[in-house]
Amino acid sequence: MSAPAVVPVPPSPADERKKRRLALIGGSLGNLVEWYDWFVYASFAIYFADSFFPNDNPTTQLMNTAGIFAVGFLMRPVGGWILGRAADRHGRKSALTLTVTMMSVAALLIAVAPTYGQAGYFGALVLLLARLLQGMSIGGEYAASATYLTEASARNRRGLGSSFQYVSMTCGQLLGLGILITMQHTLTTAQLESWGWRIPFLLGALFAVVVFWLRRRLQETDAFKEQSSGEGEHDDSTRGTLKVLWEHRRQAGLVMALTLGGTVAYYTYTTYLTKYLVGSAGMPKTTATLVSFTALALFAVLQPFAGMLSDRIGRRPLLITFAVGCTVGTYPIMTALGSASSYWSALGLSLLALVIVTGYTSINAAVKAELFPTRVRALGVALPYAIANALFGGTAEYVALWFKSSGHESMFFWYVSGCALISLVTYVLMPDTRNAALSRAEAEADAAADGKARPTATPATAPERAAR
User: Fold this and answer.
1) Which candidate among 76, 169, 255, 356 keeps its CA 20 to 30 Å from the CA of 382?
2) How far apart are CA 68 and CA 132, in angstroms?
3) Contact of 222 with 439, CB cutoff 8 Å
4) Which spans in 187-284 are helix H?
C-alpha cells in the first residue's frame, strides 16, 4: 500500500511576516556595509588626497582622488553584467554574498596602500585597483539588493520595502561620517592625514566579514525559486543573458533615462556636499561634516514614508515631483549653499534639497525591478543603471570640481538641472509600475481578479505590459 501523499502546509501569516522582516533586515544590513565602504572613500578624501599624489595644489589633489572615485564607476557596468547575470541564474542570495566578499577585499587594499612618499605612484595604483574592485562589487550589489528587497516584499508594500535600499545606503554613509566626526574630535588633523584615514577602511573590511556570515543565512525569494523550478514558460538557459535583455531594451532605456537625473542629484547633495561647503562656502571641515551628517540622518528617516506613499498613490507622482523640484530648484539652492555662513542655514538648504531628491531615491529600486520579468530582472536593473551611473553619477563630483577650477562653478548647477529635466520627460511619458506582477502567484491573482482563467500566466506579462 502506497503512503499517503504529504500535503505541504502553507506558512501562516505570522511566519510570512517574520520571513519578510528577516529578508528586509538581512538585505538592508548587507547593503549598508557595501555602501559604507563605497562612500567612506569620498568622506575621507579631504584627508588622504595628499597621501597618494604630489603636494602641489589642493584642488588638483582632490580632482585626482575624485577621478579615481569616478573610475570606480567604470567597473559598475562590468559588475552589473557579471553579478546581475549571476543573480538571475544562481539566485539573489548568492550574488549578495559574492558582492560583500569583493567589497571586503577592496577595503583592505585601501587600508594598507602605501603613500606617495613611500612608493611613489604605486600607492595610487593600489588605490585605483581597489576602486575598480569596489566598482564591480557595487555594480552587482545595487541590482541584487534592489531585486531582493522588491521581490521579498508584499505586493502592496513594495515601495516601502524597496525604500530601505536607500535607507541602508544612507546609513552606510552616516556610519562613515559618524566615524569621521569621532576621529575629528579625538585625533589631530595631522594624525588624520598621516594614518587616521586608514582606520575606517580596516573597519569596513571587518564589517563585511560579519555581513558575509549574515547573508549566507538569507532565504531566496519566492519569485526566483518559482522561476528556477521550471514553472515558467521560457528556456532556463536564457536567464540573465544579454540576448534576453535586448528583448527588453525599451525597459533598459527607461532605467537609464529615469536614473540620469536622480543619480546626479543624489551624488551632488551627498558625496559632493561636504567638499562644496568647505571649498566654496568656506566652512570648517568639522562644521561641513556635521551638516552632512544631520541632513543625511533626516533624509534616511524620510525614505520609508515616501515609499509607503508610493504604495498608495503610485510611483510616477513622486518621480515627477522630484524632477520638477530638481530642475527649477538646483540653481537657487546651490547658490545659497555657496554663501551659507552658519550651520543652521546650510542644514536647512541641504534638507530642502534632500527632501526633493527623496521622490527619486525612495522608490527607484522598486520602479526598475517592476519593469522586468523574473528571468532577467537583476541584469535588467543592474546593467543600464550601472551605465547611467558610470556616465553621470560617478562623474558628478569631478564635473563640479572641473567647473570650479575653470572659474565657472555655477555652470555645474545648470548641468544638474538639465539632467533632471531629461528624467522629467521620461517620468511624464512612462507608465506607473506599482501594480506590476512579479511572480506567477501575483499574475494568477490578477487573472482571478479580472475574472479570466489564465493558467499559463507568468510573471513576465505584467512588467512587460507596464513598460509599453
Assistant:
1) 356
2) 9
3) yes
4) 189-194, 199-215, 222-228, 242-247, 249-269, 273-279
What is the C-alpha separation between 65 and 263, in angstroms, rounded? 20
Find, among 158, 140, 136, 138, the residue nearest to 149 by Cα.
Answer: 158
Closest CA to 322 of 336, 305, 306, 337: 306
- In this structure, of 16-30, 52-66, 235-249, 390-404, the range with the lowest mean pLDDT score is 52-66
Residue position matching grid coordinates 499517503: 4
In tens, the pLDDT along 41-50 reads 777 877 877 7
Sequence-ordered list of residues with C-beta below 8 angstroms from that of 46, at least 6 positions apart, any chain: 62, 274, 275, 278, 285
pLDDT, mean of residues 362-386? 91
Amino acid at position 464, single letter: E
pTM over 0.90: no
Confidence of residue 60 (pLDDT cuts 50, 70, 90): low
Cα 241 to Cα 260: distance, rounded to the nearest angstrom:
24
| Cell 555645474 belongs to residue | 412
Q: Tell me if 99 sits within 8 A of 140, measured CB to CB.
A: yes
* pLDDT given at position 274: 85
Predicted confidence (pLDDT) at residue 168 exceeds the cutoff of 60: yes
- Which amino acid, 297? A
Q: Please check whether residue 192 is in contact with residue 184, taking contact to mean a CB–CB distance below 8 angstroms.
A: yes
Let me know: does 48 contact 192? Beta carbons within 8 Å.
no
One-letter amino acid at 393 equals G
Please count the CA atoms within 13 angstroms of the CA of 435 that sit on its side-chain side. 10
- Biggest CA–CA distance in the chain, Å, is 88
* Residue 341: φ, ψ to 5°: -110, -5
Classified as helix, coil or strand, 86 is helix
CA distance 75 to 366: 23
Per-residue pLDDT tens digits for 357-371: 999 999 999 999 999
Residue (of 146, 147, 380, 142) closest to 255 by Cα position: 380
Pair 165, 31: CB distance under 8 Å: yes
CB distance 302 to 362 below 8 Å: yes
Q: How far apart are CA 143 and CA 176, in angstroms?
A: 23
- The answer to whether 172 touches 33, Cβ cutoff 8 Å, is yes
- Cβ atoms 142, 385 nearer than 8 A: yes
Contact present, 137 and 107 (Cβ < 8 Å): no
CB atoms within 10 A of CB 400: 26
